[in-house]
Amino acid sequence: MTTLDTTASASPIASSAHFDSLLDDLRTGTEWGLLLGGQGGPWLEPLAELIRDFALEGDIADLVRRAETMLAPVADELARTGVSFDPLGWIDVLNAGESAEDDQAATLPAGADVLAPAASVPGIVLAQLAGLAALGSQGLDLNAYRPVAVAGHSQGVLAAETLAGVSQVEVLVLARLIGAGAQIVGRRRGLLGQTMVSVSGVVPERVAEIIDGTGAVCRIRNGHRAVVLSGTEVDLAVAVARLEQVAATEKAERDRLATGGAGFTPVIEPVESQLAFHHPQLAEAADLVADWAERIGIDVEHARRLTFESIVNEVDWVAQLTQVLDAGPSWLLDVGPGDLASRLSAAQTRARGVGLVATATKRGQRELSVVGARPIRPVAWSAFAPRLVTAPTGQLMLETKFTKATGKSPILLAGMTPTTVEAPIVAAAANAGFWAELAGGGQVTEEIFADRIAELTGLLDEGASFAFNSLFLDPYLWRLQLGQTKLVQRARSAGAPIDSVIVTAGIPELDEAVALVEELTQIGIEHVVFKPGTIGQIRDVIAIAKSVTGTVIVQVEGGRAGGHHSWEDLDDLLLATYSELRSRSNITVCVGGGIGTPEQSADYLSGRWSESYGFPLM
Q: Most C-beta atoms within 10 A of its C-beta, which of 208, 283, 562, 618?
């Protein structure tokens, strides 16, 4: 068993009160970055809210009018899409519906297909331009206070051009052209309709392998374990069926215990879009856009490049966001639409200790500008790295949160029947300064238990102590040791040097677990430990930690070594729950199960183990 925690607190805790708003900090030197989302969420409602809250109607109306004037030479060809673009008119309809006394929802007029690419591409851009204007209205003038980095997802690259000096009207015009080109080519290639699905919770490479040959493509990576598939409705249905079939097959194998480890369990959800964005066949739209751009006086190559970047090229949001985070911002501001980019970015920013504010939402606007409302930045995972320290004896030692809490080595002698049933091995490890667990699986009667405790106590050096490992899986032993008979509690109350109790092979119900923690703490047990072996059990222990005041040690056990504790792969367990575990300052994390070499132990202690999966150090 190897400990992972270090000296840093896992829960974000404010070190001091802030008497300035976050906005004040950004205007006085705190570095920040800017995020702009793409397709996948509503844009009209967020735009309407920004216009209303920041009195932007006049500015937006003027921008739309100037764009229409510039587009006049190609207006007839844009009309071929059959989709209108009247955002302010549509917002008026929405507002009228909100103010109506009856319960009838507002109905947009015919042709007002806000998800169609001819409307959604410029609509997304317009919502982001309104988001940028709202920042200016709040006092963050982007000409005076520049972000250290900017990232746009899909259509978000268009509004980002304004920070490079391109005029807002030209950006909106390009968005109109690109949306129209996408609409025409999408219709021609069968790429309109319900043509995008998100697939999360699984390795992207595995998804791409399974859907290969279906006609659907996997060209959008939104997270370490999240991708989006694009294709015709028929191709997409075939791809989804394949994914579901593989998932069902692997579940059946696991249900009959034919295999262990993490199964293929994708979460498949439709994307709110009416075009297969980033499908390679959309490349044809670049020729249309380039032709229209030339006729209205916009640089052709610039138009072509932005077409590819916004609707055709592969998107790797993980890589883009990593570049932004590497620039060193303390905060990232998401200017919309809504909080889409924030939701895609939360996991990565949390790992790096960077704050995230969706400034196009009411909550985000308050967090930005109101004193006392700023969110607390998370603790970066790098803060959990182990440290080398020099002990009073002059010896160089590794310091972690575990070593500070227990005064013992970060390498544990875990309880396991029959290995640690006998007293000598446990005493030897404890006397050498290691955490040492006496396995309860061999203490099967009250007499054997008493004899073993007496023997072990006699073998320990003065001041040394040991932990007791009890099997929740075994009702008889559980009742004997910690339940009704309470042999462990009685022994501790009688002076036995038991400093810790480990609950293994199952997790009690929340109320029972909390009561046990309180009981053991009251009789002088310093550390209460739970040993989960599944994702569900880990989350059960997190719930326990939320319900108690003291620290809980979590020994995450993988199943590579076999046995009844876990059938799961240790790395899969950690990748799925590490962020949740780090969210609690009163959780100390240890890992074990199949770690068989010093090199493997070093990888887990240092956090290097996660790099091979493309994740930050864990």
A: 618
Measured CA to CA, the distance from residue 72 to residue 88 in angstroms comes to: 19
Rounded Cα distance, 13 and 378, in Å = 8
Tokens 């013992």 correspond to: 408
318 contacts: CB under 8 Å, gap ≥ 6: 221, 222, 223, 224, 348, 614
DSSP 3-state of 591: strand
Angle 580-586-589 from CA coordinates, rounded to 5° = 60
Token pair listed for 153: 């997802």
How far apart are the two ends of the chain, measured CA to CA in Å?
16
pLDDT digits (tens, 9 = 90+) for 493-509: 998 999 999 999 889 99
Query: How far is 195 from 173, CA to CA, in rounded Å?
Result: 26
Global confidence as pTM: 0.85
pLDDT single digits (tens) 341-370: 999 999 999 999 999 999 999 999 999 999
Phi, then psi, of 439 in degrees rounded to 5: -75, 120
148: left (phi over 0), alpha (psi -120 to 50) or beta: alpha
Q: Chain centroid to CA 451: how far?
A: 50
3-class state of residue 371 by DSSP? coil
C-alpha closest to that of 90 among 39, 127, 45, 38: 45
Q: What does each C-alpha distance from 101 to 49, 88, 97 come to in angstroms?
A: 20, 22, 9
Amino acid at 179: G
Cross-strand bridge partners of residue 256: none
Contacts of 205 (CB under 8 A, 6+ apart): none
Round to whole Å and give the CA distance between 559 and 567: 5
Q: How far apart are CA 297 and CA 287, in angstroms?
A: 15
**Closest alpha carbon to 124 in 44, 214, 212:** 44
